[in-house]
Write a structure and sequence with these properties.
Layout (H helix, E strand, L loop, with lengths): L2 H17 L4 H18 L3 H17 L9 H22 L4 H21 L3 H13 L2 E6 L2 E6 L9 E4 L6
Antiparallel strand pairs: 1-2, 2-3
């Protein structure tokens, strides 16, 4: 099962569990899922790992129970989904992409603004077009150029940054 499928399954299980008669195990699984989701929203990988380990401990504490239902399977599916999300976070990181690429974008905008001042519009357009191809939209205003990430990994909303460049 790929990462996206595992996350979708976790979401389905979470919604299904909230509708089912709340057993103590399912209530504990849901609490760990909520702790994991809160840590993910806060970009806190250590807390995400803590939620995974806490759920693992919870499931182990229930292994001697003679449950005649699929509750342990649900708990394990939730655990697998959390681990898959941790793998995705490890691959992409939790930092805001604008803070990672910001200094480089600011440098490119400085070069672009210098080309515009020197009336080398083909060069300025080439820099703007390359930034756009990389998912950075440049906005020109009298007070300076600003930029916005339009195609960045992570949350869907765009992140904005401002170049420290003033137009003449």
């Amino acid at each position: 099962m790929n990462d996206r499928a595992a996350v979708k399954r976790c979401c389905w299980l979470a919604s299904h569990m909230s509708r089912s008669a709340g057993s103590p195990l399912l209530a504990a699984v849901r609490a760990h899922e909520e702790a994991f989701a809160a840590a993910r929203r806060a970009n806190d990988p250590q807390a995400m790992v803590g939620a995974v380990l806490a759920l693992d401990d919870e499931l182990w504490s229930w292994t001697a129970d003679t449950l005649q239902s699929d509750e342990m399977d649900r708990g394990r599916a939730s655990l697998r989904a959390m681990v898959a999300e941790l793998g995705r976070v490890a691959e992409l990181g939790t930092r805001d992409p604008a803070t990672v690429v910001g200094p480089f974008v600011d440098l490119a905008i400085t070069v672009r603004d210098a080309a515009r001042r020197d009336r080398r519009f083909a060069d300025a357009d080439a820099v703007r077009d390359r930034l756009l191809a990389l998912g950075v939209e440049v906005h020109d205003a009298p007070e300076g150029s600003t930029w916005e990430l339009t195609a960045a990994p992570g949350p869907a909303e765009a992140r904005e940054g401002t170049a420290n460049v003033q137009k003449p």
